[in-house]
Write a structure and sequence with these properties.
- Strand 19 and strand 20 form a beta hairpin.
- Strands 12-25-26-27-23-24-13 form a seven-stranded mixed beta sheet. It has a seven-stranded mixed beta sheet with strand order 21-18-19-20-14-17-22, with no helix packed on it.
- It is of the alpha/beta class.
- Helix 7 crosses helix 8.
- It contains 13 helices and 27 strands.
- The termini are close together.
- Bound molecules: adenosine-5'-triphosphate and magnesium ion.
- The site of adenosine-5'-triphosphate has 15 residues, from helix 2, strand 8 and helix 9.
């Protein structure tokens, strides 16, 4: 890079100020997922942002499960989130925390507020609380229970904990200001009675803290300096600050908000992904058409490509949607020089080289990546019967068609020149076999310069090729056609998945391990499916085609 200007995003500028003022000795960040679903590309932004800041400032990064709401949480989600965060390379070392481990401290914090006269037990029903809260235009009304004595509140809160009250019968509320212009400050509920088993604490508790109360406490307990969250929490910041101030933490954490990442033509949002999974519209959370991290991994995206993408996207304070093509650009860039370029025929048609000896096989040398010699070369079998792509042959070609047609000569990639002499069709006129002759003088790498051909096509040796299944993907929704139908259901692209069952690949591709990826020349990048592929019947997912609709701004 010729121009090394270090531009800092607004979060880094805030952190610089805080460090300069001596507010914090160390930068401590965290990623706080709620274990109620799998992580998606949006979460990756938060993970890499938080991890990246800790790393940049020589601080610490924590992973903390925000598991204070027992209704929706599952151990399956905890496992998947751990796998995804590790996969992205966001190293939390030994700092894996669970908010539920702090329930005792949260209870103590609530007691502290009661003792300070800053919290009270309220008997209003949920509906009454809503009515009393007022509106954006009108102030709320004080609850008739607001002035209970400290002793009374202490007694009632303890009895809430001991299970003396039914769900919803009583809540603990912060005593702030029912006339505040910020609705979140109108005596928010901070504890509720709920008889639910928790995945971590079992039946120990029948009262659970509310998110806005629990979150700042979790941050403060862990010594988080900068609590980075998304914009929808901006209005909650005064409450966050109130909680850490009233609880008198020595170094109160600072909340900073940034805009969520949205991508065009995909479904982000746990809720929506969950619906597709539950309605069996997709093959689980890791269906390669989704942008959950497990789906991207299964599809063949790499952590490097996702990091590159996040760098390009940057951090912003304004909501916007990023073109999905940009993510595709990043994976192409990442794989371009790292992966071997192999031959695979997705829609096969047989070619017979009539002047090639029957039963003979020769092994030809094929470079793995012309742009990266380090990847070396491989030996590929060549023989009398081959497969080529159906689209690479035409009986009556249009102008500028340089591939195979009767009388035309082309190069078989890494092999010989062949000339089409004849072909055979079935009753319906479909071509079933193509007959060619080859010129032994024209072997690739032999230095032959006698004549030139305009077309090069790829092929595989029929008896040696492995039959595989290939899955091609399109975006699951199309924003130009509308993401939702009139009835609110999702308007899904019926072509989002195409399964090709009769594809032929080079022998080496038939033996690749699940998760391995390659370029198939002219067709794109492909990855062996980790769920459905077997040695007998390999399955390849197309990660991305080679064509791009995205042009990066060249600096
Ligand atoms: P969703 O909106 O998909 O339901 P969520 O916000 O409920 O996600 P959490 O588990 O609560 O998911 O989020 C963990 C962290 O990830 C939070 O700090 C949240 O702000 C952040 N996050 C969630 N979605 C995005 C996104 N699209 N872009 C950036 N950060 C996100
Ligand atoms: Mg959430």
């Amino acid at each position: 890079m010729e121009n090394e200007t270090v531009s800092k995003n607004f979060i880094e500028q805030f952190i610089d100020e805080d460090l300069a003022e001596g507010k914090y000795k160390e930068v401590v960040t965290r990623f706080p997922p709620e274990p109620n679903g799998y992580l998606h590309i949006g979460h990756a932004k938060s993970i890499l942002l938080n991890y990246g800041l800790a790393k940049k400032y020589g601080g610490r990064f924590n992973l903390r499960f925000d598991d204070t709401n027992p209704t929706k949480e599952k151990t399956e989600y905890v496992e998947s989130i751990l796998a995804d965060v590790r996969w992205l390379g966001a190293d939390f070392e030994d700092r894996l925390f669970f908010a539920s481990d702090y329930f005792d401290q949260m209870y103590e914090a609530a007691v502290k507020l009661i003792k300070k006269g800053k919290a009270y037990v309220c008997d209003l029903s949920a509906e009454e609380i809503r009515e009393y809260r007022g509106t954006l235009k009108e102030p709320g009304k004080n609850s008739p229970y607001r002035d209970r004595t400290v002793e009374e509140n202490m007694d009632l809160f303890e009895r809430m904990k001991n299970g003396e009250f039914a769900d919803g019968e009583k809540v603990l509320r912060a005593k702030i200001d029912m006339a505040s212009p910020n609705m979140n400050m109108r005596d928010p509920v901070i504890y509720r009675v709920a008889r639910m088993s928790h995945h971590n604490t079992g039946d120990k508790w029948c009262i659970y803290p509310m998110y806005d109360f629990a979150h700042p406490i979790e941050d403060a307990i862990e010594g988080v300096s900068h609590s980075i969250c998304t914009l929808e929490f901006e209005d909650h910041r005064p409450l966050y600050d109130w909680v850490v101030r009233e609880l008198e933490y020595e170094t109160p954490p600072r909340q900073i908000e940034f805009a969520k990442l949205y991508l065009t033509n995909v479904i982000t949002g746990k809720r929506y992904i969950k619906r597709l999974v539950e309605e069996n519209i997709v093959d689980g959370w890791d269906d390669p058409r989704l942008v959950s991290l497990s789906a991207l991994r299964r599809r063949g995206f790499t952590p490097d490509s996702i990091r590159m993408f996040m760098e390009m996207v940057g951090v912003s304070k304004a909501n916007s949607s990023v073109d999905y093509a940009m993510l595709e650009y990043c994976i192409r860039e990442d794989l371009k020089l790292k992966k071997s370029r192999m031959m695979a025929v997705l829609d096969p048609i047989k070619v017979i080289i009539t002047n090639y000896e029957e039963g003979k096989v020769e092994y030809l040398d094929a470079p793995n990546n012309l742009e990266n010699e380090e990847l070396g070369s491989r030996q590929i079998p060549f023989c009398r019967e081959l497969y080529i792509e159906r689209e690479d042959f035409m009986i009556e070609p249009p102008k500028k068609y340089f591939r195979l047609y009767p009388g035309n000569e082309v190069r078989l990639m890494n092999a010989y020149f062949v000339t089409c002499q004849d072909y055979k069709t079935d009753e319906d006129g479909n071509v079933t076999e193509i007959y060619c002759t080859y010129d032994p003088e024209t072997k690739s790498g032999s230095g032959f310069t006698g004549r030139k051909v305009k077309g090069t096509i790829h092929w595989v040796a029929a008896p040696y090729a492995k039959q595989v299944e290939v899955r091609l993907y399109e975006n699951i929704v199309d924003e130009e056609k509308g993401v939702y139908n009139e009835d609110g259901s999702l308007n899904l692209n019926p072509n989002s998945l195409t399964i090709l069952k009769n594809c032929y690949v080079e022998p080496m591709l038939g033996e690749a391990a699940p998760g391995e990826s390659f370029q198939f020349v002219r067709k794109g990048f492909f990855c062996v499916d980790t769920k459905d592929s077997t040695p007998e019947k390999p399955v390849y997912n197309r990660i991305v085609s080679l064509k791009s609709s995205f042009k990066p701004n060249k600096k």
